[in-house]
Q: What sequence folds into this?
């Protein structure tokens, strides 16, 4: 590389190269090309939410006391003065009201957690609907699905830590689901909790270590592997002029993409801090402390577990008894089997797609648009709609309450919807995809082809008017 | 006339029941448990009203009609006051769940009806003084006895077979009455379960959740993860999608990008 005095990135490369001999690697990194499509930023939103989570989480961990020993609250929150609470709950109140910036950090952390899982979900949808999970990216896809599962687990551990009314009730459900595992449920749950629910005091510190060390370390490590594999395999890209299976058309890391990505980081961080400062989230002081003998109506998990609550609610009263024992207790179906099937289908997707949907075993570096593979898009939309119905069933009682609709009626309504909605979604999606494929028009961006007219001399002219139309619509 | 005016003023103050002063007037103006006898004119007025508005279900002398509505002998002024002040009675039909609406009768008519039902004996309207209760104790008791159905922030909800009312309009006196009655499927709490002092604490806690401090910012309904998830998706995820859309394809200024054949942008 040619440096001049003003060539700062060049200077940086020279600085590193003279010491580490890394010029080739740096050069490769700076020349790495990212395709220009907004949907490739979804995973980055998740990545930057994770950065915000680590930063705020580190701050919170400095003040949080993972101990469920009971104490009498004498902090600055008036309404709970003199109540018997756990040290964990008291320290959460301490963070919220007595530590400078503590409530902001808590709220930013919680909003970031919700956005983290939302961004992973959107990213996953992009991957599924464009066939980006196909060979050779199936390996990285498995890592991504694992990251989603770990993010949900990590979020639930965080939700459970403050020992407020909601977190305690959430753990009670988790306990029931753990107990429902056939044959091993009892020993498994008691081993995890260190005794019967609510467990020994060791449980809170296990949860804490899982939340602040084990799971974030695994998630961070898998993110690193995820990114390394992406760069090793190069990005996939949408088909288009000049785009082939063996190239990537887009913006190089430097100059260009690195700044764009930094801009996205700034936007994600700014939005999360803004929300943390302005919108109240998980006001544990209003929920009060948890004791195993109290509960509140309308308790809900964070959104990413809503589909499991929905499954527990919708599952008919079925249990498998034999020889005077309950082999499969009811929570197993909604709490273990249903998420097991959903994640099982996600993990099996590359294989299912090769074998049954696309019947295509070749390597693909060009993506498909959802319309290019109507069967896959329709099946994915059907699965998504089934999960969405169960998700809605987990919280719709609040909505039905507003209209005075009974709870039992709502459960039957959603049981019916679970069977009907995926079928309708499949048929509608397939039709829409086939229609779009015929028209070759983007539903949001319009038509992106070119009219070519043969002229008198036998050559071809692009229709200028059509080109202008196309350019304007971009 | 002067007496009636005074009683109405006292009732208004009693409904607020925020100060000992008001409670004092309330206690002196409404009949105390030792002297349950209401003025006979008021009872007669209440009787006439009862015959025209309530007797079709509860019977002409409030003795109840089997399979239709219970006897009101012995429920006392307490129950009559609660059901009429909260608009739960009269019901639209005998099978309906009593739900809170605006009262069907004017305050003076309610007074007369309450006096008539109270004339059959039974508990009097309780005196609830939130200022004498403890907020933390109220929070603890509410979590123990009430939140299971009403939610910890008194937002109401659904239980099997019934709609649980929100407590955002419940006055301290109505809280004290509901605790002793156990309307519809709600359990009844006697003096043994909740003392008068504890009811004062509960009423104080319910007042506090009616005026939330929302220390964390915009309260988004204070019902926890549902509105939080909606904000995360509809506000945060939508904003980030927009940002990604704007940021992700800012390519026209990039000279490195090879021109697409055909001149498309």
A:
């Amino acid at each position: 590389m040619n440096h001049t005095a003003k060539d700062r990135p060049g200077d940086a490369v020279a600085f590193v190269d003279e010491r580490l001999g890394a010029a080739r690697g740096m050069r490769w990194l700076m020349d790495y090309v990212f395709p220009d499509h907004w949907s490739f930023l979804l995973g980055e939103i998740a990545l930057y939410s994770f950065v915000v989570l680590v930063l705020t989480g580190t701050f919170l961990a400095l003040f949080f006391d993972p101990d469920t020993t009971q104490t009498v609250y004498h902090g600055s929150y008036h309404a709970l003065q003199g109540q018997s609470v756990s040290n964990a709950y008291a320290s959460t109140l301490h963070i919220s009201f007595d530590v400078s910036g503590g409530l902001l950090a808590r709220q930013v952390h919680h909003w970031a957690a919700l956005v983290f899982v939302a961004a992973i979900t959107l990213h996953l949808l992009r991957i599924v609907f464009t066939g980006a999970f196909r060979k050779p990216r199936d390996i990285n896809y498995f890592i991504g699905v694992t990251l989603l599962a770990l993010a949900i687990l990590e979020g639930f551990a965080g939700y459970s830590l403050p020992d407020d009314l909601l977190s305690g009730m959430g753990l009670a459900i988790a306990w029931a689901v753990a107990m429902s595992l056939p044959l091993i449920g009892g020993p498994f749950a008691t081993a995890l909790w260190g005794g019967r629910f609510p467990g020994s005091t060791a449980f809170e510190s296990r949860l804490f270590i899982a939340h602040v060390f084990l799971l974030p370390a695994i998630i961070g490590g898998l993110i690193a592997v995820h990114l390394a594999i992406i760069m090793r395999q190069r990005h996939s890209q949408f088909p288009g002029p000049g785009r082939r299976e063996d190239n990537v058309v887009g913006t190089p890391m430097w100059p260009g993409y690195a700044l764009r990505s930094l801009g996205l980081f700034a936007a994600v961080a700014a939005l999360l801090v803004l929300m943390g400062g302005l919108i109240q989230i998980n006001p544990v002081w209003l929920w009060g402390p948890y004791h195993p003998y109290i509960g509140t109506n309308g308790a809900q998990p964070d959104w990413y577990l809503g589909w499991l609550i929905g499954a527990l609610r919708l599952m008919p009263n079925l249990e498998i008894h034999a020889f005077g024992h309950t082999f499969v207790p009811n929570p197993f179906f909604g709490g273990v089997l249903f998420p097991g099937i959903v994640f099982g289908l996600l993990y099996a997707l590359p294989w299912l797609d090769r074998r049954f949907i696309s019947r295509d075993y070749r390597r693909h570096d060009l993506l498909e648009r959802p319309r290019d593979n109507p069967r896959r898009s329709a099946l994915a939309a059907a699965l998504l709609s089934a999960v969405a119905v169960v998700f809605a069933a987990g919280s719709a009682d609040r909505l039905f309450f507003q209209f005075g609709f009974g709870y039992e009626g709502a459960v039957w309504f959603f049981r019916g919807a679970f069977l009907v909605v995926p079928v309708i979604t499949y048929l509608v999606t397939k039709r829409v995809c086939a229609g779009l494929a015929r028209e070759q028009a983007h539903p949001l961006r319009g038509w992106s082809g070119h009219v070519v007219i043969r002229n008198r001399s036998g050559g071809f002219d692009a229709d200028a008017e059509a080109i202008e139309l196309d350019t304007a619509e971009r | 006339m002067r007496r009636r005016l005074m009683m109405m003023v006292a009732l208004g103050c009693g409904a607020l029941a925020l100060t000992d002063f008001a409670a004092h007037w309330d206690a002196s103006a409404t009949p105390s448990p030792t002297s349950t006898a209401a003025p006979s004119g008021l009872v007669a007025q209440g009787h006439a009203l009862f015959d025209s508005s309530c007797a079709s279900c509860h019977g002409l002398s409030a003795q109840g009609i089997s399979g239709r509505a219970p006897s009101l002998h012995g429920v006392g002024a307490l129950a009559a006051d609660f059901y009429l002040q909260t608009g739960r009675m009269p019901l639209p039909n005998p099978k309906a769940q009593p739900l809170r609406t605006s009262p069907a009768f004017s305050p003076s008519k309610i007074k007369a009806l309450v006096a008539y039902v109270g004339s059959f004996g039974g508990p009097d309207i309780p005196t609830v003084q939130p200022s004498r209760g403890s907020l933390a104790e109220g929070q603890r008791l509410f979590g123990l006895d009430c939140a299971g159905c009403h939610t910890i922030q008194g937002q109401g909800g659904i239980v099997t077979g019934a709609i649980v009312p929100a407590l955002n309009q419940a006055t301290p006196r109505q809280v004290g009455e509901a605790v002793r009655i156990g309307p519809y499927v709600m359990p009844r709490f006697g003096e043994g379960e909740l003392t008068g002092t504890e009811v004062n604490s509960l009423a104080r806690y319910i007042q506090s959740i009616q005026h939330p401090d929302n220390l964390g910012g915009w309260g988004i309904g204070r019902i926890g993860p549902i509105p939080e998830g909606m904000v995360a998706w509809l506000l945060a995820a939508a904003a980030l999608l927009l940002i990604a859309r704007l940021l992700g394809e800012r390519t026209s200024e990039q000279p490195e990008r090879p021109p697409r054949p055909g001149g498309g942008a």
Summary: Chain A is about 65% helix and 5% strand. Residues 466-474 of chain A have pLDDT under 50 and may be disordered. Residues 1-31 of chain A form one domain. The longest strand of chain A covers residues 325-328.
